[in-house]
Design goal:
Layout lengths: L1 H40 L7 H9 L9 H15 L4 E5 L6 H17 L2 H15 L1 E10 L7 E7 L6 E3 L13 E9 H8 L12 H4 E2 L4 E20 L4 E2 L9 E17 L4 E6 L7 E5 L1 E5 L2 E5 L6 H22 L3 E2 L2 H4 L30 E2 L6 H19 L15 H14 L1 H25 L4 E6 L5 E6 L1 E2 L7 E2 L2 E2 L7 E5 L5 H18 L2 H5 L1 H7 L6 H9 L4 H4 L6 H76 L4 H6 L8 H5 L26 H4 L3 H9 L11 H5 L2
Antiparallel strand pairs: 1-21, 2-3, 2-11, 4-5, 5-7, 6-7, 7-8, 7-9, 9-10, 12-13, 14-15, 16-17, 18-20, 19-20
Helix pairs in contact: 1-5, 3-5, 8-10, 15-16, 18-22
Protein name: Portal protein p19
Pfam families: P22_portal
Keywords: Coiled coil
């Protein structure tokens, strides 16, 4: 118990020190912003108390014609029409575009469910009126009987109650180390909830800071503080990082000095720590929204939209009050009358209260007295009107918001000139819109970090699309395989990956709508088919009334559901889609079979091609062989002829067979033709040379070679000895 009390004492001392430090730093800016806010929002604040009393004593009017409020409302409402969107984008290789789409749906759903537009509008109003606003993200349980948490975007209407780290210089507050939020609560309420010791009387010097005895209220401070702990970061050989040193030091590839960070939340009164715990993510959940920020060395000056136009507004009020006074005095008739003419006549004390005025036409000596004369009206009114117009023009020039930018009719200027004036007004105050975009981007980063920390178990969440339609998706669902949105076997795993925020910027909503209408009108003139393909979308684009939904639904009925994307929940459409899927599967099977047949035919065609190629190579080889054989046969032919020339019949034949003629050379060498011989004799005279024809073994017995030789007669070799050669023996 003693340790806790000492710990609370340390917390109280540190947090109160942070509060004092931040209050001292922001005091001048907050005071200036408070004066600007009251000047433009409250009545009777554009005249100083001294001037007001002096004029009232003199019977002079003190009119307040608040031109600045109109300019402020013009900018605030333009920002409301131009709603910016927070969009998540994947950064590293682990982040998935499909998960980024789910995060965008969660961001929009959080904005809608928590009424984030109220928080954004309150921040913009504070920025315009007093140069500083703030937006808060609160994480709480869905219900009292649930452990599921979800974030909400909350408005901070009193921006002067937020004190940021004075060392923070980023416009989105991302470099701040702490932030303090103070609120005044009923003393009895705090005592009932946290005990009487939470509202004990404080020291006298703290009465104005932490308690108000007259109102019976106490100041409750919430402090979010980032606490950093030095750590050593280890890089393992498998590429992973960890703050825990592995037991096996061989797994360490590298290490460096780093830190781990947590965000701690304290809730305390001036005398007691009411609550304290760790926030879900190490980021401050309160984001600042700045207006016009100017740095002079280390001194920061924050100005509202109307700060430098306050003096022209005061002059405008003065001259308009003088104008009213002059007009009022001009309606009163003033007379110049002598004492003798008005003596003893009461009506001349207030001539405007009488319809008939009497005067003494003679004096005591009966001498005529001149009648009273009506004084001419005051002629200084023209100068006052010019001065009032000059003050009004000064307001327009300082704010750079001409009448065209305020929607006033300008007859002597072209449409292009009016558009340029409106654009100039938007550019002159774009720094405020840009600062808001930076703050909203930081809101998106904090929300994504919360999603990745809170949504760690399988669940089904509602997301909202850009068109405002909602759907339910599975998050962190265990599944097998790979595909879109699946990381490490988990579908829509929000716990991994790094995502950044991008803001969509552009022209105001009204300008975009008018430009889109003009563009669509021109496009329809050249491409009228668009009206037939998407009539519902065209009606939606041109909508200016309240019957849009009925018109669109009536147009969608005769359209193909596949075009309108509304047939997903229709049972008939689902049946048709299943039928289409079955047909697609059948077509895919048929396609596979056809491709298999085509592959078989391709194989057959390839085999035929190889056969033909082999035939051609064989024919070429046979031709080469025959050329060599032809030369050898020519040599053999010459040798045979030489032998035949020297051959003579034996003498025994001549003696014993004198009665019979000797056999001819043809009879001696004639042999029956051999089947399958390579050469066939053309007549009987060549039969005697048959035995000199090379056999199959000399040239080859391949049937393809024989067929090739038979097809080409020019390749035939020695055909036998001609009759002339035989007779030439």
């Amino acid at each position: 118990m003693t340790e806790k009390k000492e710990k609370d004492t340390d917390i109280l001392e540190r947090v109160r020190k942070l509060c004092d430090e931040a209050e001292d730093y922001w005091q001048d800016n907050f005071k200036r912003g408070e004066e600007d806010r009251k000047f433009v929002t409250l009545d009777k604040t554009q005249w100083s108390e001294k001037d007001r009393k002096a004029r009232e004593n003199d019977g002079l009017p003190t009119l307040t014609i608040n031109k600045l409020r109109t300019y402020c409302k013009q900018y605030i409402n333009t920002t409301r029409l131009n709603r910016q969107q927070i969009k998540a984008e994947p950064v590293d290789d682990v982040a998935d575009p499909a998960i980024a789409k789910i995060l965008n749906g969660l961001l929009r759903d959080t904005e809608i469910s928590s009424g984030a537009e109220n928080a954004y509008d309150a921040a913009v109003e504070n920025v315009v009126y007093s140069s500083f606003g703030a937006i808060r993200i609160h994480v709480d349980y869905v219900s009292p009987d649930s452990f599921q948490q979800e974030p909400k975007i909350m408005a901070i209407h009193n921006a002067d109650s937020v004190y940021f780290d004075p060392n923070s210089k980023e416009l989105d507050g991302s470099d701040a180390r702490y932030v303090v939020l103070k609120t005044w609560v009923s003393k009895d309420e705090i005592a009932d909830q946290y005990g009487e010791d939470a509202v004990n009387d404080f020291e006298s010097d703290d009465q104005n800071t932490w308690s108000n005895r007259e109102d019976k209220t106490v100041c409750i401070a919430e402090c979010f503080e980032l606490q950093r702990t030095p750590r050593t970061l280890y890089l393992l050989i498998d590429g992973t990082t960890t703050f825990d040193e592995p037991k096996d030091t061989s797994l360490i590839h590298d290490k460096r000095d780093s830190y781990s960070e947590v965000c701690w939340w304290y809730k305390l009164s001036g005398s007691k720590v009411l609550e304290n715990r760790e926030f879900v993510v190490p980021m401050l959940p309160i984001v600042p929204v700045y207006g016009d920020v100017t740095w002079d060395g280390e001194d920061r000056y924050c100005f509202s939209l109307i700060h430098f136009a306050k003096d022209p507004q005061k002059l405008y009020n003065l001259w308009k009050s003088s104008e009213a006074h002059q007009i009022t005095e001009g309606q009163r008739k003033q007379y110049m009358v002598s004492l003798e003419a008005s003596r003893d006549l009461p009506e001349w004390s207030d001539p405007n209260a009488y319809q008939v005025l009497r005067y003494n036409h003679v004096d005591d000596q009966n001498a005529p007295v001149p009648p009273p004369q009506l004084m001419p009206a005051m002629t200084a009114l023209t100068g006052i009107l010019n001065a009032a117009d000059g003050a009004k023009q000064s307001i327009e020039e300082i704010l750079n918001m001409q009448p065209a930018a305020m929607g006033e009719n300008v007859n002597n200027q072209s449409g292009k000139a009016i558009s340029l004036l409106q654009q100039r007004a938007d550019v002159s105050h774009f720094h405020i819109a840009d600062n808001l975009n930076k703050s909203l981007a930081q809101i998106g980063r904090v929300l994504i970090a919360i999603y990745q920390k809170v949504y760690t178990v399988p669940l089904i969440k509602r997301i909202t699309g850009e068109d405002g339609k909602t759907e339910r998706v599975q998050i962190n669902h265990q599944t097998g395989g790979q595909g879109e949105g699946i990381i490490d076997g988990i579908l829509n795993n929000l716990t991994v990956g790094r995502y950044d925020i991008r803001m969509t910027t552009g022209a105001s909503y009204i300008s975009q709508r008018q430009e889109n209408k003009q563009a669509l009108t021109q496009l329809l003139q050249f491409v009228p088919q668009i009206g037939q393909a998407a009539p519902d979308l065209l009606v939606k684009a041109f909508d200016d009334g309240n019957m849009l939904d009925d018109i669109v639904e009536r147009i969608k009925k005769p359209l193909n559901p596949a075009l309108t994307q509304d047939g997903e929940d229709d049972p008939q459409m689902q049946a048709v889609m299943q039928q289409y899927q079955q047909q697609m599967q059948q077509l895919q099977m048929q396609l596979q079979q056809a491709m298999a047949q085509v592959e078989d035919k391709n194989a057959e065609r390839q085999a035929k091609f190889e056969i033909e190629q082999l035939k051609a190579e064989t024919t070429l080889a046979v031709a080469q062989i025959n050329n060599v054989a032809k030369a050898e046969l020519e040599e053999l032919k010459g040798a045979i002829n030489l032998i035949l020339q020297h051959m003579q019949p034996p003498q025994e034949w001549l003696d014993t067979n004198s009665q019979q003629p000797p056999p001819t050379q043809q009879q001696i060498y004639q042999e029956p033709p051999q089947d399958g011989g390579f050469f066939m004799p053309e007549d009987s005279q060549q039969a005697q040379q048959q035995k000199f024809v090379p056999d199959d073994g000399q040239i080859g017995s391949d049937t393809q070679i024989m067929a090739a030789m038979q097809q080409d007669p020019e390749l035939d070799g020695f055909q036998g000895i001609s009759e002339q050669e035989e007779n030439g023996q």
